[in-house]
């Protein structure tokens, strides 16, 4: 990460003079740190201002309110998130299932290393960013393309790709949230292992359904 990207806030200290958008990025970095510590609802613009050493009125030159600040942080987060997942996918090489597993690892890695961004992206205010830009939608569209590729790998029709994408996303997000909350202690399986086993089961069920193979467990109708 670089200071120019707006994700690194270590250089934003008290008394620093901010020029050419420097204050905007410093406030984003402060919000990222505060959200990491307390969650999206756990900070105010005044606290972000105090953290970077400016008056409480200064943030309003850049953001209408705290939700606007979080929304921009979420937008930046989704853009970086999409880059990381695309890098992990690597064109679906050597096969779609292996590449999907790498995406899952990258998803958890992002949540672990960027908790402030991740919580902003998927908190209530993060919805503002998804509505005002296409970065959040792109994350899901990319996942849809991966599930289409996985189903094709197993010669299954792709009609179930959207449902499979929603299931994988829900599962991955759930594992990430439990991981961030510290629920995976010593002696338990790793979050990555749990995610892989869960996604394998989802794919197996989706392929069975697509091919008309009876499920192992009864399906409630």
In short:
Helix content is 64%, strand content 0%.
Furnish the topology, listing elements before pairings:
Elements (H helix, E strand, L loop, with lengths): L21 H17 L6 H8 L13 H24 L6 H18 L1 H8 L3 H7 L2 H19 L7 H20 L10 H21 L10
Poorly predicted sequence stretches spanning 5 or more consecutive residues: 1-15
Query: What CATH first level of the largest domain would be assigned?
Result: Mainly Alpha
Provide the domain count.
2
Number of DSSP helical runs: 9
The CATH homologous superfamily of the largest domain corresponds to Tetracycline Repressor, domain 2
Radius of gyration, in Å, reads 20 Å
Distance between the termini: 48 Å
CATH topology of the largest domain: Tetracycline Repressor, domain 2
Tell how many strands the DSSP assignment holds: 0
Instruction: Please tell me what the overall shape is.
Output: elongated
Give the averaged pLDDT, no decimals: 85
User: Architecture of the largest domain, according to CATH?
Assistant: Orthogonal Bundle
Strand content: under 5%
Structure classification: mainly alpha
- H/E element sequence: HHHHHHHHH
**What oligomeric assembly is this protein in?**
single chain
> Largest sheet, if any?
none
Helix content: 55-70%
What would you say this structure looks like, in words?
The structure is a single chain. The chain has 221 residues and is an all-alpha fold. The protein has two domains: 3-63, Arc Repressor Mutant, subunit A; 73-211, Tetracycline Repressor, domain 2 (Orthogonal Bundle). It is built from nine helices and no strands. The longest helix has 24 residues, at 66-89. It is elongated. The N and C termini lie far apart (48 Å). The model is unreliable at 1-15 (pLDDT under 50).
């Amino acid at each position: 990460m670089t200071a120019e990207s707006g994700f690194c806030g270590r250089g934003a200290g008290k008394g620093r003079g901010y020029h050419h958008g420097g204050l905007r990025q410093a406030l984003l970095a402060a919000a990222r740190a505060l959200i990491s510590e307390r969650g999206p609802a756990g900070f105010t613009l005044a606290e972000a201002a105090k953290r970077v050493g400016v008056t409480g009125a200064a943030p309003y030159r850049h953001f209408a309110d705290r939700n606007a600040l979080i929304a921009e942080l979420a937008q930046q987060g989704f853009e970086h998130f999409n880059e990381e997942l695309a890098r992990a996918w690597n064109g679906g090489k050597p096969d779609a299932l292996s590449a999907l597993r790498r995406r899952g690892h990258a998803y958890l890695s992002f949540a672990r290393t960027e908790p402030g961004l991740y919580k902003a992206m998927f908190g209530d205010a993060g919805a503002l960013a998804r509505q005002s830009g296409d970065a959040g939608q792109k994350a899901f569209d990319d996942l849809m393309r991966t599930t289409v590729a996985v189903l094709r790998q197993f010669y299954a029709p792709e009609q179930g790709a959207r449902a499979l994408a929603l299931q994988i996303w829900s599962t991955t997000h759930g594992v990430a949230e439990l991981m961030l909350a510290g629920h995976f202690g010593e002696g338990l399986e790793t979050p990555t292992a749990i995610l892989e086993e869960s996604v394998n089961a989802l794919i197996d069920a989706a392929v069975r359904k697509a091919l008309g193979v009876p499920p192992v467990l009864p399906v409630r109708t």
